[in-house]
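Sample pair:
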Amino acid sequence: MFLQILLSLTLTSVGMSLPARADERAAPQIREEIWALPLPTPILAYLVRPIEIGPFPLVIMNHGVSLDPRERSFFPLIEFRDAALWLARRGYMVVAPLRPGYGAGALDIPERGIYSLFLSNIGNCANPNFRDPGLAIATLDNWIIDFMAGQKLIVPNDVVVVGQSGGGWGAIALSSLNPPAVRAMIVFAGGRGGHLEGKPNNNCAPDKLVEATGEFGRTSRIPMLWIYSQNDTFFGPRLSKRMYEAFTAAGGNAEYHLLPAFGSDGHFMVDSRDATQIWTPLVSEFLDKHRR
């Protein structure tokens, strides 16, 4: 039995341990767990779900990218916790995978010839490869969908994919493959190549990024919601609008929302509990509109 071979560490039954707000009192009780998923590349994943017996519609939440091996080694196992809890209270099973090369898997000791598996390098900015790192995340998402469906833990063909920053870029890449199980996708501040040399508002080959976005749009037909903010220092309004225009002009199916400035850098809006009330109305409307 799969559940017997999982590393399944129950963190808390959130519905019972956290006081519910007035608008959540009718929501299901939920629980948070850490699972080890035996995929072709085994990974850990944060999982939150209603405590009732499923199956449930699935949400996959993809985290961002760090090019610094030391930063990746300290990468949190749980990101977007408040967003994940909000989705679970709407009846979804949320799986947030920790990709290879992050957290405990970020073991890099070059002097000993030890390198972790890292699938997000875009290469030199003179000729960056934006496409393949996005498709690597898309491959992982497809593995998760197939695995969860095979275990009969999810409702077939009722999957939503969410991603932030580099994880949002992975969602855009996945949309170009049109996996039949996925009904909708949500991108928060998606893109690659931001903060070149660690500098805000300094991007690696933005024209190439726009071009790659258009390439994904040529075959993408899954409804998408793109959310950016005015003070995003990775993908500012001008660049995100160019990406959106290239994507939809090529045939991609997306709606774009530029939200007001949030905090010191709106790029991380989805990580903040305070921002939940800002983006959830957009996401609620979008998910309700694209039900199967």
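DSSP finds nine helices and nine strands in the chain.
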